[in-house]
Design a protein that fits this description.
alpha+beta, 60s Ribosomal Protein L30, Chain: A, Phosphoribosyl-aminoimidazole Synthetase, Chain A, domain 2, 2 domains, 12 strands
Length: 320
């Protein structure tokens, strides 16, 4: 077996089949049986030197990001975060003020999204900071959870916001798209077929959606490159990589990747919002960047209509 996070997750899923779970291992959240609300759960572990740097980022920003990553999973499925548990392995060298700062950052974001912190675990050791957040969520009224498995041939592929260059600061200060996901799900209704958040890079996450849905995702070069953030453009000038490379592979954008029925998208674009949600959520656009095709895999098509495979090169844990 290839050594990779995806391969390990697939092996774990085979050992622990879904049984009576409505949604099991392999999506952004699992759905628990036996409750009228249909609770969903997600857990994310963040580590110093990988997801943040305690030598650069304040405890407040680190705490905020730790919760924001799990809230982004809620956005990925268009569900409402309700409760969170926070477990930490604090460095013994930290002061009490640093430890408090971590929770102050968590508290501020939790209040913004009405997500109640209900417990967790506190440990310390002589090693770098590790923080793990578990969030329980429930569906919004009249909105069913959106999975990454529902992309259909003929769908349009869309993304929110701007991509690439997040390491310049957006990876630690991003806005989880919880409200935006709800808004989109309400307006697109059953035409919204699949959705996930972009945590590991467009190339990696789009390939995961394609595999989960049993389809191919074809990205249109010019429209995909047009989603580049200003930071991605600056990074391209500095390191010699193309802007498109940064858009596809930088990771930690925490925007939404979605596939939408073409007729539903056309109807949406004919509304006053016209695909631009900036009137409600600030300067954030929703843009078409490609289409779902029958040929499996991830593809790039330029103006010449030639289609070439994309090798996912975003962030991957547990690689050789």
């Amino acid at each position: 077996m290839e050594k990779s996070e995806d391969q390990l997750i697939a092996w774990i899923a085979s050992r622990f089949p879904r049984t009576d779970l409505p949604i099991g291992i392999g999506d952004d959240m699992a759905m628990l049986p036996g409750s009228a609300a249909g609770y969903l759960v997600t857990s994310d572990m963040l580590m110093d030197g990988v997801d943040f740097k305690t030598t650069v980022h304040s405890p407040e920003l680190i705490g905020r990001k730790a919760l924001a990553v799990s809230l982004s999973d809620c956005a990925a499925m268009a569900v409402c975060p309700r409760f969170a548990m926070v477990s930490v392995a604090l460095p013994n060298a930290w002061t009490m003020e640093q430890a408090k700062g971590l929770y102050i950052g968590i508290e501020a974001l939790a209040k913004e999204y009405n997500c109640l912190i209900v417990g967790g675990d506190t440990n310390s050791w002589d090693y770098p900071l590790v923080i793990d957040v578990t969030v329980l969520a429930e569906p919004w009224p009249e909105v069913s959870p959106v999975r990454r498995t529902g992309a259909k041939v003929g769908d349009l592929i869309c993304v929110t916001g701007e991509l690439g260059g997040s390491i310049a600061g957006r990876h630690i200060t991003f806005t989880p798209r919880v409200r935006e996901a709800k808004w989109l799900a309400e307006r697109l209704g059953g035409g919204l077929h699949a959705m996930m958040d972009l945590s590991d890079g467009l190339s990696v996450d789009a390939a995961r959606m394609a595999k989960a849905s049993g389809v191919g995702l074809k990205l249109w070069r010019e429209l995909t490159e047009a989603t580049a953030s200003h930071d991605a453009e600056l990074a391209a000038r500095a390191d010699g990589r193309s802007v498109l490379d940064h858009v596809l592979n930088d990771g930690e954008d925490f925007e939404l990747l979605l596939t939408v029925d073409a007729k539903a998208w056309k109807a949406f674009m004919e509304t006053p919002e016209g695909g631009d949600v900036s009137q409600k959520f600030g300067p954030m656009r929703v843009r078409v960047i490609g289409e779902v095709i029958a040929e499996r895999g991830l593809w790039l098509e330029g103006a010449d209509k030639l289609k070439t495979p994309i090798t996912p090169r975003g962030w991957r844990h547990f690689t050789a």
